[in-house]
């Protein structure tokens, strides 16, 4: 090669610099891709740890807890706003188990009208809560109420290992409960969540449902019925027929009783005309099951967690479903 065609020193150094830059760019790109994959794997692992891959098994049998005394605060509004109530109850006594009772179906009831009670379990079984503990919760505005241990419930569990577990449980367990109750046409209400160590227990009583309705639920029903009753009285005064198919509701058993609830609605029901002892809204969880089915109409098989007979998952459905349409996208995201 002629001398004048040899590359200069500057050209060689420039080519080497460009090669180093290209290699550096490739290394940087590889590092970014590696970190992104690592982040995705970490998020997937965390989601799996929080219960993303856990199976949801719904069954009917004995309750996961016995009779309990709870300190609670009543809430009317979106279920997504109940987080502060959990925080309040836990801040009073962090060692106690948290509990929530949801009375309305968020797929059917406007968010601002959904009712629930959130608080802590003060005692379980024969044990009574201390007066000091009761006074402590009452000091922070909580009320005290007792729930029984029904003979049979629809129940499910979900891992409780992180805050994400609550979000996942909301979107996985509640649809499974809805499908189970609707498929077997059961009368199971209200819906309870018990947070115990590393598990969330979901429970829908099949008996003594009325004992799980706190006094505020009945009060809200009275207030909501006021305008409707006034309208009905006006219609009576003008001689209008108040027993039409579109304004009458007949109840066999209301949740205000202390026995198994098996409410039956007449065709074309509306929210008017509820019996005074009834504590349910037009689309409460009590209307998600059958009009007359209960655990007494199902076959019993095996034993539940507390040694009680467990209901057979293959039990023949009875009665007629109360919800006329499929639930929409879950509203509770929140919970």
TrEMBL record:
SUPFAM superfamilies: Probable bacterial effector-binding domain. It comes from Felis catus. InterPro entries: Reg_factor_effector_dom_sf. This is Testis expressed 264, ER-phagy receptor. Residues 218-335 are annotated as: Disordered. Residues 273-285, 323-335 have a biased composition (Basic and acidic residues). The chain crosses the membrane at residues 26-49. PANTHER family: TESTIS-EXPRESSED PROTEIN 264 (PTHR15949:SF3).
